[in-house]
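Shipment paperwork, digital attachment
Item: protein structure file
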Amino acid sequence: MRGYRGTRSESMKKIFVFLFVAMTTFACQESLEQKAAREAELYTRKNCPAQMTDNIIIDSMTFEASTHTLHYYYTLTGVADSAGVLNPNDARQALLAGLKNTTSMGAYKEAGYQFVYTYRSQKNPETVYFETVFSKKDYE
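Attachment content:
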């Protein structure tokens, strides 16, 4: 009898350990929304502001959970910091092509998240020179 109880006891311990590990693993997984918020904050903290080109600085990236939107904020500087310099059609097409080709955003694109790009003036930060929104129908 004793050997049987020991074997059964060992089996029960293994089951409890397995269940504990499984529950802990599932409990620690974050939702896609939580991941987006964390990654946006981390990207901004580590990389912003950063010079993208001679006249474009990325200021921050945010995540708006209520609309499932990743929002990129840029500042135009130097010769680009004037009305009419940035061609809206060319900018939109370039941003859309970049979004379509970015594999790191795959999970967000599959989930149908929106992507917003806002370009402001360095001389007058209240001035928005260009803003565009891409939804799933745009980047599919």
